Amino acid sequence: MSSDVFFSTIDSKKHKSPLLKVKKLINRCAPEKFFSKNELIAVKTHFGEMGNTAFLRPVFLRPVIEKLNNIGAKPFLTDTNTLYVGMRTNSVDHLYNATMNGFNYSTLQVPVIIADGLRGDNSTEIEINGDILSSVKLAADIATADGMFVVSHFKGHEVTGFGGAIKNISMGCSCRQGKLDMHSDSKPGIFADKCTSCGRCLSFCASSAIDMSPKATINENCSGCSMCISVCPQAAIYINWNASSASTQSKMAEYASGVVKALKGKIIYLNIIMSVSPACDCYPGNDRPVVGDIGFAASTDPVALDKACLDLVCNAYGGTDPFRERYPEVDSDIQLSHAEKMGVGTKKYKLIEVQ
Ligand code: SF4
Ligand code: SF4
């Protein structure tokens, strides 16, 4: 059994607005069947790191928000704090960054909420039956929403091959500890030369896992919550980015299953296949796109949607995968196949072109 993926090309002979195309795609996914009046609906996107310009243009969120408003739902725009230290590490910096990148009330007329709280530890644990994980730690304000509309910038990714809807609902919907679970197979470490022995990490660690002698060190009690990373004023606490691509992708697929479970499947997905940069929007810059702008695709199945978008990009690149060419050691089919195995969706799709 295949899933429908609705697609509109960027090509336009009559100056038709891309926003009208996106509107039609949204309608084909029948949001009225998913969302109801007064429901709190998360509109999940990625606000882009400061300095990056490849991230999704905020204007593409307008048709989504308008549709949710017409239904009578109460949409809110959301993203989660990052694991790495940057402009999206805590909600204060993150909201400033979002505003500067155009995701704010004055441009979109909806509140912006960082879904995992001030320091990325506001989470809800959801049990799953994964091959690797028995539970996932999700951003609380996403896990407890009534539904979600996921709008993703489809592009390359150095760890996962590509980043699309699956990545947005896994890495993008987890709290900081969840991101650490997916990215690392060990606990954080501390750069002794950067540590000023201020003791701030010690006062925030709930597991008595930090010793001061006189520099901070992490002991065996560490639960991997990663709170210390966000509170260190010296950026002295580092993440061991040591999980393999296969491990990260498989855990992502399991996190995606937890998100679908938490939201009872009330999720619609829209991918914007423009500015298809080779790497993540979390970098403070971006490289030349690997292909020209392709268009827009929407579905109620994130696996089918990402597979269709990957195929569209490969076709535009002459029939080969530009991401695999750049990251030959990364097999992006792992996230698709494991998500399929976890019941998140199917790789089989029917591409329906919408004019
Ligand atoms: S917060 Fe950072 S600088 Fe302060 S003691 Fe901990 S590791 Fe050292
Ligand atoms: S990751 Fe959490 S438990 Fe481990 S040292 Fe840091 S604050 Fe403590």
Q: How does the SSE layout of this entry go?
A:
Blueprint: E1 3-9, H1 18-28, E2 40-44, H2 62-71, E3 74-79, H3 91-100, H4 105-108, E4 112-114, E5 123-127, E6 135-139, H5 140-143, E7 147-153, E8 155-157, E9 161-163, H6 165-170, H7 176-183, E10 189-190, H8 200-204, E11 210-212, E12 216-218, H9 227-231, E13 237-238, H10 245-262, E14 267-273, E15 295-299, H11 302-316, H12 322-326, H13 333-341, E16 349-353
Parallel strand pairs: 1-16, 2-3, 2-7, 3-4, 7-14
Antiparallel strand pairs: 1-15, 5-6, 8-9, 10-13, 11-12, 14-15
Helix pairs in contact: 1-2, 7-10, 10-13
Bound molecules: iron/sulfur cluster (2 copies).
One iron/sulfur cluster binds next to helix 9.
Feature tags:
4Fe-4S, metal-binding, 8-stranded mixed sheet, Rossmann fold, 4 iron, 4 sulfur cluster binding, 2 domains, binds iron/sulfur cluster, two-stranded antiparallel sheet, 4Fe4S_Fe_S_CS, alpha/beta, single chain
Description:
The chain has about 350 residues and is of the alpha/beta class. The chain folds into two domains: about 5-185 and about 245-355, LarA, N-terminal domain (Rossmann fold, 3-Layer(aba) Sandwich), CATH 3.40.50; about 190-240, Alpha-Beta Plaits (2-Layer Sandwich). It is built from 13 helices and 16 strands. It has an eight-stranded mixed β-sheet, sandwiched between helices. Strands 5-6 form a two-stranded antiparallel ribbon. A two-stranded antiparallel sheet has the order 8-9. Strand 5 and strand 6 form a beta hairpin. Helix 1 (about 20-30) crosses helix 2 (about 60-70) and helix 7 runs antiparallel to helix 10. About 50% of the residues are buried. Keywords: 4Fe-4S, Iron, Iron-sulfur, Metal-binding. This is 4Fe-4S ferredoxin iron-sulfur binding domain protein. It holds the Pfam family Fer4_7.
